[in-house]
């Protein structure tokens, strides 16, 4: 079968043809275990767990403890076999390559008559094999045999051990994953199960041509006065046996007004030993021909079509790549903090902030883990990527950190981030381990870094590269008992991240910053030999902060930082989501084997309980104890993250804190975790709260130890706030009418946080009887959410009673683009805390978890398919907090 396929991260049309080897009526794939007892039809791209489920050999891998019960899969050897036809004409091409975009992970490849093609050992690499002399007319048989990743890791570890040996026992995982260039979380993590999968997880095809193909395109934009310079580099590839490339390279850029800027050059050069050559074309573009690309919340993420063509001298073949690019500048500024903060304690050290298009922007966002524990599903499930990224966009996020224990995400993921204006902090895939540095390992790492930088570099959403997750601090902090061999591990750390990875990144993408680790002290860590004496120094770089012992609803407990790139607290997913993992009602108890199995964080439930009971009343004898524990855990998580995030946003004023990326956005199974979005897409209370605590304009109060209240005005806009009025309503818990209202003037510079000159206390009232509501009215500010201070823990408040709540759904249904919008009217007779609306109907509430201080409020529900308003009304269930 002849067809066209997607190559790399962009659309490629090649006159030289492609034989697609994905599963189809013409290409039949099967799988079989080592002893032949397990076999069936296979889907390619895919993976063994997916295929075993489809064949009915194993059940739902996320049901109950199936992660452990199906572990035998990862100990076996699996062979994937394809049978396909080629014609005599197909063999006539000068170059015939077999291309695997992704193989997971350690495998041997054989084509016809037991002819070996090659061996692979890195799931993050595209493999290209010359099969010109091995392909035959008629039927061909391709075999890919995958070794057990568990056994492959053990074998490598016996030769080149690197600490730690295993994940903690509570993870129910496997050992030595750091030996494999594979998704590190596939051997288990504190938020996810172990599924050490194997398979052909990305497309496979045969490429045949006479000339050459454009394998990658990188783009380099630079401001030249008011204009822009664009350098396009085409990474052209042919066979190793072809020594010369002769043709024409051309580019065409569509700019404003649908104008097309074109340029071409003659290419007549000798190839490198690997059959590759890099050719570039530079364009100078007038500044009035383009608009800038901006992150979410700061402007439009404008993209422009760039077409890159290579045509052979004979003009018989063309290779083409069509990509979208953006024009923006992004830099990390590490300059003396005294320039911002003066000669103070805060002014010691260096700043750490992102300057985008010349402006210092506070980065609001979260951390992204793989969208599915099975990489082939994370790669192919565009709907889940759409839902998660749109959810991040909807709550004012401007940055996501693609965490280093997962995968380099799909091309579609980065294209979507480009479109939504979501900047990416891109870790390389090394996390929470020391790593070997023997030559074979460094060789495959080199290939991995080169390919992924080349694949992703053109995306305007990529903001920064980072060498690893938490490995500097792990080495300095002796997390894995490495102190006795510190010098050895230090040297290996530098050899991998500094001597091997950094030169590749800086050569291929010199415009972007490469951070050796996260967290780190940035430049200061480098000055100290790359392993800082205190990688958590608040005067430098970025930090990861977790503290489950302090009162995390108290703003005074959090440390200072220049940039918070990880922080978070656990909660349980909703009962509805948990029920997708078990049908046994006895599992839905805190002390059940099911619940214990799902909690991978040591002492996780105790930490949740301590935070929860520190602020809320919960009777262990309540017959709805587990249901309330789940709901209250989400309240506790949301309030703690709200508190900590606002501390960091306030910190822009006195510490020049310039980023808050909480851990974590999404989930891979139905279990307690730090996520704001449950597996399956349901928003936790945290994600709804993020819409408020990441609001562009927010009044943010802080209750001090003295019980005085500082009030900050946070302004993430390019214009100042002037002549604002900050209203403070004091309520008691028994009435919807404020007992006192005070108003104060407010102002804030553009892109700033400012402590307001407000003398605020409530000493005339009993703290347990009142709470405070803060609101803003300012010229030019369309909206700013209310904010609140609860002076004492909720379990100590007096006067909060059980409310009477009436919910009706209006009969008028509005169409909003591809969605239907319903208006939900809510009437109450008293204060309601954390009013939560839930329905089994597929869709979502735009806002939720309301602090209700008015007799009537409205909520909006959106869905794709029509449902009768009365049916929606009858389906809505509510929860709220009451002592």
UniProtKB/TrEMBL annotation:
It catalyses: Hydrolysis of terminal, non-reducing beta-D-mannose residues in beta-D-mannosides. InterPro entries: Beta-gal/glucu_dom_sf, Beta-mannosidase-like_N2, Beta-mannosidase_GH2, Beta-mannosidase_Ig, Galactose-bd-like_sf, GH, Glyco_hydro_2_cat, Ig-like_fold. One of its GO terms (molecular function) is beta-mannosidase activity. Residues 417-576 form the Glycoside hydrolase family 2 catalytic domain. Its EC number is 3.2.1.25. It is found in: Lysosome. Monomer. Belongs to the glycosyl hydrolase 2 family. This is Beta-mannosidase.
